Amino acid sequence: MGCVAGVIVKQVPTKPYDGQKTGTSGLRKKTKEFMQENYLANWVQSLFTALGDEVKGQSLGLGGDGRYFGKEAAQIIIKLAAGNGFKRVIVGQNALMATPAASAMIRRRKLYGGLIMSASHNPGGPDADFGIKFNYSSGEPAPERITDKIYGETTKVAVLNMADIPDVDLSKLGSTSFGEFEVVVVDPVEDYLETLRGVFDFPLLRSFLARPDFGLVFDSMHAVTGPYAKRILVQELGAPASCVKDGEPQPDFAGGHPDPNLTYAEELVKIMWSDESPAFGAASDGDGDRNMILGRKFFMNPSDSVAIIAANAQECIPYFKSGLKGVARSMPTSGALDRVASALGLPFFETPTGWKFFGNLMDAGKCSVCGEESFGTGGDHIREKDGIFAVLAWLSILAARNREVPVGGALVGVEQVALEHWKKYGRNFFSRYDYEECSSADAGRMMDHLRGVIAAAQPGDAFGDFKLKLADDFEYTDPIDGSKASKQGLRFIFEDGSRIIFRLSGTGSSGATIRLYIEQYTADPALLTKDAQEALGPIIKVALELSKLAEFTGRTNPTVIT
Ligand code: G6P
Ligand code: ZN
């Protein structure tokens, strides 16, 4: 028992739990695991111990994607924050806060950092997943030096410093004090909205959305973006309330898988492929950082999306009006962005998979817009990917393109913007095949086999009709701090620029997910509108043969095709 700033702190004995290994997306486990006695508290205490005396007297942000166990978890975290010397916790009402909004709040309020309770796009509920991660003072996910330290602490944690304070009513806005410690419940949308107001031309978007010949639908997938979409798209920008689909956050996302892709956002896909579809459709994931953009019967590939946003940013988005500082994409993301960078003379960076790699570039003023094939798109206004940012970026592009189009005229939609882009830059056909829940041993054997193929391969070797230029295991040296990340994906790059890439997912919660990424470029105007699966057929065949994927895993079909 002790006393910190007028609050009684109990030293609660605890014992380490195995396997609290922390990645950059924090700790993600089955909800039931998290609900074991001190499981969550151990990790949070380990984080605070790892951060050390730095946390004393600081303010901590807190919120989550609304999934099951979030409210209870918030109460535990508040008590630990007080017990470890924080002076304030700023928490979203009802413990809600989208990941990009948490990043915005940390930056705007100059907080020490924030905790985000989310397992992103994984299903929620007592039998599904929960997660927690820490973001640092510029709003970026904790770097490895901290996540490693947290893990180290989880293996030896023995005492929890728990403030002896009652639960706080998180449904009411306002501040509650216990001694010198304060809990402030805030509207989770407010700071984020202010940040976005500084990026986009809201009046212009509002007048565009008022066009009677333009309609949109935004699918929140029963997850956290519901309140954001209602406030931003409906209240601020004047879209009809009916444009927000599934906008009430639910602890189990209504039993769904809140991942915005063609498989899991099937209801939205149905709407956009129907004859009455609106011109624009979008969806976001559990915690609001991913996005999918659709046109009428048209899927906007995320790799193309970031390239198109980058190509149009200066002209269409006020925040970027003095030009982009640079652009970046993750390695498996298609090379569409590279072409924009070279046409605009912009610094360009190819990073490993994972948003954290963009943060250093942004902090160093070298990157304004970045994206990943995994439905992540963002800008340097915050340090997380940002689903609603992508939506507003696209609406800004459409508003600009349609400025001269009279109401009732031929409205320029997402597909036409894409087609114009491809005509100018050529098209990087891209597809990703996911094989979920493979056995880890099988997946490992397949990767070893591929490493063997790479070791034996020589430039000029033929793989089907493709001639090899380079095969390796991708390694990245951060240009800012010189840190190295190795083994980031097995690449086969061919002489015509086509690529085959294999990676094991770092975000699954059971077994191994194999990701196969395929890309092929064309500048032939006759081929631009070809179906991606058709265009990529031959190279996909090569990929499956060279990896012996079916032989190693017994899988003949992917679980998800993007
Ligand atoms: C998270 C990260 C992304 C990353 C993705 C990769 O969503 O925030 O930056 O692209 O995971 O997931 P994977 O399952 O392919 O490792
Ligand atoms: Zn997410």
Automatic annotation (TrEMBL):
One Pfam family per UniProt: PGM_PMM_II
InterPro entries given in the database record: A-D-PHexomutase_a/b/a-I, A-D-PHexomutase_a/b/a-I/II/III, A-D-PHexomutase_a/b/a-II, A-D-PHexomutase_a/b/a-III, A-D-PHexomutase_C_sf, A-D-PHexomutase_CS, Alpha-D-phosphohexomutase_SF, PGM
Catalytic activity field: alpha-D-glucose 1,6-bisphosphate + L-seryl-[protein] = O-phospho-L-seryl-[protein] + alpha-D-glucose 6-phosphate; O-phospho-L-seryl-[protein] + alpha-D-glucose 1-phosphate = alpha-D-glucose 1,6-bisphosphate + L-seryl-[protein]; alpha-D-glucose 1-phosphate = alpha-D-glucose 6-phosphate
Keyword Cell inner membrane: no
Keyword Transit peptide: yes
PROSITE patterns, A to Z: PGM_PMM
GO MF term (any one): magnesium ion binding
Gene Ontology annotations of biological process type: glucose metabolic process
Compartment(s): Plastid, Chloroplast
Keywords: Carbohydrate metabolism, Chloroplast, Glucose metabolism, Isomerase, Magnesium, Metal-binding, Phosphoprotein, Plastid, Transit peptide
Alpha-D-phosphohexomutase alpha/beta/alpha domain sequence ranges: 20-156, 191-294, 303-404
Domain of life: Eukaryota
EC number(s) stated in the UniProt entry for this protein: 5.4.2.2
Co-factor requirement: Mg(2+)
A GO CC term assigned to this protein in UniProt: chloroplast
Family to which this protein belongs: Belongs to the phosphohexose mutase family.
Protein's recorded name: phosphoglucomutase (alpha-D-glucose-1,6-bisphosphate-dependent)
Organism from which the protein derives: Astrephomene gubernaculifera
